[in-house]
Amino acid sequence: MSKKQTAEAQQTRDRIAGDSVFGYAALPGIADEMLDTQGNVRPVWQHLLTTIGKMDETELANRFARADRYLRDAGVFYRAYGAKDSSERSWPLSHIPVLIADAEWQAVSRGLVQRVELLERIAADIYGSNRLVAEGFLPPSLVASNPEFLRPMVGVQPADGHFLHFCSFEIGRGPDGNWWVLSDRTEAPSGAGFALENRVATTRAFSDVYAETHVHRLAGFFSAFRDELQSRKKHPDDRIAVLTPGVANETYFEHAYIARYLGFMLLEGEDLTVVDGRVMVRTVAGLKSIGVLWRRLDASFADPLELNQSSHIGTPGIVEALRSGSLSIVNSLGSGILETRAFLAFMPTICRHLLGEDLLLPSIATWWCGQQPEREQVAHNIEKMVIGPAYSTRPFFDDNGQSVLGSSLRDTAKASIADWLSTDGAKLVGQEVVTLSTTPAWVNGKLTPRPMSLRVYAARTLNGWKIMPGGFARIGSGADAAAIAMQAGGSAADVWIVSEKPVERTTLLPAEESFTRNMPGSLPSRAADNLFWLGRYIERAEGALRILRAWHGRFAESADPGIPLLKDVTEYLEALDIDTKEPVPASLLANINSALFSASNIRDRFSADGWLALNDLAKTARKFQATVQAGDDATHAMTILLRKLAGFAGLVHENMYRFTGWRFLSIGRYLERGLHMTRLLGHMSGADAPDGAYDMLLEIGDSVMTHRRRYNVNTASLTVTDLLALDPLNPRSILYQLNEIKTEVEQLPNAFSNGQMSPFYREAMRLHAGLAVMTPEAMTVEVYQQLEQDLYRLSDILAQTYLG
Amino acid sequence: MLYDINLKITYAYEAPVSGGRHIVRVLPISLHDRQRLVAGTVTCHPAPEERRENTDFFANPSTMILFRKAHEKLVIRMQARVQVEAQALTADFSPGLAGLPVEIANCWTLDANSPHHFIGPSPRLPDDPGIAAYARDVAEDGMTIRQIALAICERIHKDFVYDPKATTVDTTPREAFKIKRGVCQDFTHVMIVALRSLGIPAGYVSGFLRTIPPAGKERLEGADAMHAWVRLWCGTTSGWMELDPTNNIPAGSDHIVVGHGRDYSDVAPVIGVLKSYGSHKTEQAVDVIPVK
């Protein structure tokens, strides 16, 4: 340190006492990320700390609010599991990033690269020649009794020769200041997308500090990984996809985010089928081959035929595709065995044996109790140990309380621990308790030390393994390290690797002057199905809202639900499961929720704005259900809901790219609107229509003004029929819907094959032509009934052609 | 003994199914000085659109078949000629329960016959305290592994009633143990759980039984469908032995082996994933005839 720096550090210390920022002090005997052992602020933190120190509470609160607003607007969430159900929670960001000096990070990176190369060698051995067991480096029972050991994968060589491509590590800093590896994640590591979102959110709060500090960017890491995946495709037409367990998964948001960020398809097991040993995705344009799958579901669920037979989220035949070498998968099925906690005990020896060197980054000291000497070691040092399941794949502070802290036991319990160790030793490991370092978090208006561990990512790239310069820090909710788990109230912080020199600024946008305009890839059938139904549910909700608004408007005037018109409409709605006795009927809500569910299945195709608008609609409808009264109040509520619904539809209409996905959404809306109007006219426009029926039809069809302008007469059967059924220019008429469907269908894949119209196209044309030549006089109840049947059939043909 | 074996498995579906992908394990295997497959074929009707032969982890041959077209009925036939050697019961060199863990730990291998695969719980067979207590009750101090296994085999045969109506293919060993009824699969599963609870490596054998007994002998239970029995590891010197708890006998020249596994899920004759909307009915017909 220069004299000037020393003086600055002294000044900083002087201002410390009592200040909400500078009053920060490390806990005794525990390493801290911001303060060194002498209590000096580490150089990389100086700038951030002084900047925060200059701010008043309002400014800091405003900055944190900016970060939170970003996360909310981007729709970042994770799923928390309660005792009975699960719910979406907003992402718990700890706003103060963790800063680590580049030089220190280089050492950590070297250690992790060595480690992931070692893990690759171990995986290749376990699923290959098994020398480690034969030569006594790995107890055979730890493999054979391991639930992560997938026997069907034994002897299967990965298509590109590598078992591991994307891993993560949980690392922590011990009291001596050195980093330790707490656990390895090789199965389907999650959180890399959250690291990206943490970064964006944190820079919203500290854009100035970020700009003035040499922080390594994350994008280069992802683009290098993407390039490696691209290079593994055997055919140019092969697709790369992220395979997700689906919306119920706790990190589904991240799967969708990563897929969108890297430009890969987001697929579920049922999107895939295996044909002649090749994995194919079902799309609206037929089967398309998949070359590389980045799986985010546990391996045993990937194939219900050869792996877990009870899996409902897998694809039968995946294992066979891997055996045939046509599919590359990240990471190889069965690589989860490397996460086994007991393996940590054998890593040091295996490293020396396989690589001829010591582990550069030590693992947390671990003893497998299946062996007598190790068992005794653990029993004798029980005070300093945590005992846990040998096959657990989670670090001890994040395993739902399956591990026992030796020091927390009373003497009587210690005797039973010894007994437990000797009867169940092979299923147990002892691990030395490490105290994690602390890092500053903003708690109750003050910087407070909180325990933290880092999750760091490693990706195989064309230039060997690369470590993400950053990651995400998991911050404890209290002083206890066990509270780091997010399910236990922990939070996450961005990690800044700070260089002394300016850093390279990569982004995932191509830097070249020229570019190619890629058309979006084929639309998976399931995504098309969800879009189609989203369109239908939204339109169904709108139809119901319009009828209900008209009903309550008239009810407000007469206060008598028994007048013929209201009674008639009530009967009509009953057939649709809508009960007019409820001001906001339950089935309307169910409809909106169905739309929300369809949308949640395709979040990778949706703008965050659209998603928020739809959520807002659902939330408002729920709120109204509890408060709204029949009559005027309900009319008003329906108007608000209609406006919110139009807001969503407008966002979609203005922002969605006009490609195949858009067409399915549109066809869904047109079809449902056509059905709605057909049913309604069929019910209300006969000779025995009750008084006021035609006016009400015009109101529901949003055509009162048009009718007044176009027909110089009072409402009558023929003019209303003309306007609502047969007018090609009225966007509410049946003919208009058929015309639009016809136009969209022309653009769909396989609308023609060998110059012939597809059955779906032909049917759409037939319905359109049939209605276009009708006159209002000919529109009888029977015609409407036939048309309704025809529209249902059209929907069926669509499903058979594209959505199966 | 030389046998001709005919197997016919029929699936009749309530509604047509399509996209069925199955793995079939019905063909007898060749086992060093135990049995030899002279000739054998597996055929399907309708003919599958895809078919591939494989050998699984436990060295069992398996056939993958795939149907894309809708069908209402599936018939799988297996025909084989197999030479089976009589198994002489050698002197008992198996250790006691106390000596077994060391012998297991000294097997530094993970090949298909390694005892390590057969100690822990397996997909269909979680640990069960009730069956463990039952096993402890039978095992007495001073008994060898073989004596314990024979005693448990006898005990199960005595306590359980052979009753094809009592259980299904999905019945857990806990349920079968509770009602003390079932078929060969249930007897075998319960015995495996019992042996494992004592630390004895034990696995599942799927196969066939001779249909018509030799003159003067009783017909064995389980001969009208595919059969199952237990395989257990008696230490380094004695190796594996096979016991049939359904009939309380060691598996001999009347038992023809199709496959080895940890439990039924590893060697089920037909497993499959299909898109179906209704139930289905299954029929099995087996003939195991000595060749004169």
Look at the helices and sheets of chain A and give the structural class.
alpha+beta
Question: Greatest chain-chain interface?
Answer: A-B, 28 and 28 residues
Give the ordered list of helices and strands of chain B. EEEEEHHHEHEHEEEEEHEE
Shape by Cα distribution of chain A:
globular
Oligomer: heterodimer
| Number of separate helices of chain B | 6
**Strand coverage percent of chain B:** 35-45%
Q: Tell me, what is the CATH class of the largest domain in chain B? A: Alpha Beta
How many domains comprise the coordinates of chain B? 2
- Estimate the strand proportion of chain A: 5-15%
Put simply, the count of helices of chain A is 26
Poorly predicted parts of chain A: 509-514
> In this structure, how is the largest beta sheet of chain B organized?
7 strands, antiparallel
Look at the structure and give the mean pLDDT of chain B: 91
Annotation, overall tally of beta strands of chain B: 14
How would you portray this structure in words?
The complex is a heterodimer of chains A (804) and B (292). Chain A is an alpha+beta fold. Chain A has 26 helices and 22 strands. About 1% of the residues of chain A have low confidence. Chain B is globular, with a radius of gyration of 19 Å. With 292 residues, chain B is α+β, with helices and mostly antiparallel strands. In chain B, strands 1, 2, 3, 4, 5, 13 and 14 form a seven-stranded antiparallel β-sheet that branches. In chain B, helix 2 packs across helix 5, helix 3 packs antiparallel against helix 5 and helix 4 crosses helix 5. Chain B has two domains: 106 residues, Sandwich (Immunoglobulin-like), CATH 2.60.40.2250; 166 residues, C8orf32 fold (Roll). Chains A and B meet through helix 6 and strand 8 of A and strand 1, strand 3 and strand 13 of B.
